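Hi support team,

I've been running sequence recovery on a batch of backbones for a student project. Most finish fine, but this one hangs at about 90% for roughly twenty minutes before it completes. I'm not sure whether the input is malformed or the queue is just slow. I've pasted the structure tokens below so you can try to reproduce it. Let me know if you need the job ID as well.

Thanks,
M.K.
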């Protein structure tokens, strides 16, 4: 089906609300019918995953922008609407959420023995709310889904967690709630800007910025036009594409519509919400406790999905709405500095738990702090390579870290302990588990031909383009990550079986193979042939970098000078004549489009000739001149 056909039948609403409908069905099943509850929940999760796949196939990568748009009146008094839509980045995260939901549901088949109905209901509600966050195109709706997603995870930890589950659940809820409330203040301030008379009087540059962002995407343009009409009527708006246009609008004087001082305060408010969720150092302290006490399925959703909400918030809200603050040198120093500290700190903490033969779950939790620090580093490289790599790494982290938590859960079901010293020599007893564990471990450390490699490579490339020292710090984290992960594998799988109880451990069951194989297949597929996934991110990443850097009236460090334009033209002519690629002058930061070919439908670079305005329907030039 086409994108327009899916939008007409409100396919995104089906994807978002199907798990809620399934939760109602599960609630109607008597609690005594345990197998029926589990069967219904697993079928519902599988169907939910299948419903996300048409989004992948129908999404027009060449058109880009927000697609599958649904827009309906919700709270007209404040301009809030029920607006859904996705781009390539949203689609990838929605599919990941649905897949991990099905995997987590299957993994809990034997692990959950009490209040099974409530467990699966909360798992389904968690899936609905997280998909809702990724699909929301209205900031008010985004915040509603964001906040409601805390509730199912709180109960999953508090009811089905370990001995200190209440402490971990309350700590998780309070930490993330504090960040969310601060973010709410930023949302209210942003809304007040949309009803400010000075904004209403400056809608012409907003419309011009919207045309550049929407291009030929008529549905997206219609969504923004409706939001602008709401602003003109004095009702304000929460429409995210319209807020992107407001963030990128420039007055006749060249000044930003939202002054830099206000942008920095707004950035700080959103940063509080997103940094707690990622979580970034030093806002991470709730994560190890939550992971250790959560059931295996809860850890899979927490690491594979919930942590991605913070990274998604940065690229969907902070960077496009507040571009001046996002590229401010002081802001970058703080954000990237915290990301780098988190990368190294998380890796060292994980290594400590291996060295002391501690809790495997706590080790994997601290590794998430390190890996998500890499994601933030890639995002704030503020170029297409870094943004594409960070987005891909969010997907990769969901695959590899969820796999690690599932392996820990499999061992825990057999021995009821997660202490590393209780194991050893398992490769001789459980060879199937050893093979799957090895693949997931190599995926996590970024071995070439597995999914982690290409994501880390793009992040390091983007970071190097921004600042070589950032890339150097990222490399330290990768080396430490390989050290603690391989050390963990060696201590669990090699050596002698020193505990007799381990000699009787069964290998992986058919059900365990069933939910681990999709992760193994994805690890190899993305590692060997990442193009289909990267194609989803290409245009959104280029557009996001354009929104941050290519603003009229702002000195653009990526835009070439007229002299550089002339040199590029000569170099291109020479290359097309000789069919040889010349060396690029490192002083030139402009795009280097490939030679045009007949019938090519590849996007044309959008950097206009000096003195002219960019076309509204063209794709902005990728900063650095490289395809992600």
């Amino acid at each position: 089906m086409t994108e327009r056909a899916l939008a007409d039948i409100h396919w995104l609403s089906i994807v978002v609300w199907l798990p809620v409908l399934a939760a109602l069905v599960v609630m109607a099943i008597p609690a005594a019918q345990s197998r029926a509850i589990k069967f219904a929940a697993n079928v519902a999760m599988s169907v939910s995953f299948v419903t996300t796949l048409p989004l992948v196939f129908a999404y027009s990568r060449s058109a880009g922008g927000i697609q599958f748009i649904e827009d309906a009146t919700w709270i007209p008094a404040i301009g809030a609407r029920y607006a859904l839509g996705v781009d390539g980045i949203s689609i990838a995260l929605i599919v990941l959420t649905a897949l991990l939901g099905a995997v987590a549901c299957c993994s809990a088949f034997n692990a959950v023995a009490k209040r099974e109905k409530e467990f699966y209901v909360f798992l389904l509600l968690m899936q609905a709310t997280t998909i809702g966050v990724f699909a929301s195109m209205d900031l008010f709706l985004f915040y509603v889904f964001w906040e409601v997603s805390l509730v199912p995870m709180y109960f999953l930890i508090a009811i089905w967690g370990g001995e200190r589950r209440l402490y971990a659940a309350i700590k998780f809820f309070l930490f993330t709630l504090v960040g969310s409330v601060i973010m709410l203040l930023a949302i209210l301030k942003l809304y007040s800007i949309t009803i400010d008379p000075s904004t209403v009087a400056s809608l012409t540059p907003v419309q011009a910025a919207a045309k550049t962002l929407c291009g030929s995407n008529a549905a997206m343009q219609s969504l923004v036009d409706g939001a602008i009409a709401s602003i003109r009527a004095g009702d304000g708006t929460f429409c995210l594409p319209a807020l992107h246009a407001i963030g990128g609008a420039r007055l006749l004087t060249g000044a930003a519509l939202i002054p830099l001082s206000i942008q920095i305060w707004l950035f700080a408010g959103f940063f509080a919400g997103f940094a707690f969720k990622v979580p970034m150092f030093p806002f991470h302290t709730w994560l190890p406790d939550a992971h250790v006490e959560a059931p295996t399925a809860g850890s899979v959703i927490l690491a594979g999905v919930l942590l991605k909400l913070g990274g998604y918030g940065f690229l969907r809200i902070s960077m496009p709405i507040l571009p001046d603050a996002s590229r401010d040198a002081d802001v970058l120093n703080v954000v990237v500095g915290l990301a780098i500290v988190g990368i190294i700190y998380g890796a060292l903490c994980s290594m400590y738990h291996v060295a002391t033969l501690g809790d495997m779950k706590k080790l994997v939790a601290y590794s998430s702090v390190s890996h998500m620090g890499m994601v933030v580093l890639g995002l704030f490289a503020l170029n297409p390579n870094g943004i594409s790599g960070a987005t891909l790494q969010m997907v990769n982290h969901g695959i590899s870290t969820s796999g690690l938590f599932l392996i820990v859960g499999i061992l825990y079901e057999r021995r009821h302990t997660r202490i590393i010293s209780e194991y050893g020599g398992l490769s001789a007893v459980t060879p199937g588990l050893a093979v799957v564990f090895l693949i997931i471990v190599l995926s996590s450390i970024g071995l070439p031909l597995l999914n982690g490699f290409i994501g880390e490579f793009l992040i390091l490339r983007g970071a190097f383009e921004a600042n070589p020292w950032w890339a150097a710090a990222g490399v330290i984290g990768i080396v430490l990550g390989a050290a603690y992960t391989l050390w963990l594998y060696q201590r669990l799988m090699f050596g002698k079986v020193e505990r007799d109880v381990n000699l009787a451990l069964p290998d992986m069951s058919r059900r365990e193979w069933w939910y681990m194989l999709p992760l193994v297949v994805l690890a190899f597929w993305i590692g060997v042939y990442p193009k289909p996934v990267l194609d989803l991110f290409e245009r959104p990443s280029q557009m996001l970098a354009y929104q941050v850097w290519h603003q009229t009236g702002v000195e653009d460090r990526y835009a070439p000078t007229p002299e550089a334009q002339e040199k590029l033209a000569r170099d291109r002519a020479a290359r097309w004549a000789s069919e040889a690629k010349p060396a690029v002058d490192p002083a030139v930061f402009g795009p280097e489009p490939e030679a045009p070919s007949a019938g090519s439908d590849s996007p044309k670079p959008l950097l206009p000739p000096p003195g002219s305005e960019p076309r509204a329907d063209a794709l902005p030039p990728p900063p650095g001149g490289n395809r992600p």
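--
Follow-up from support: It reproduced on our side and the slowdown came from queue contention, not your input. The longest strand covers residues 67-75. No action needed from you.
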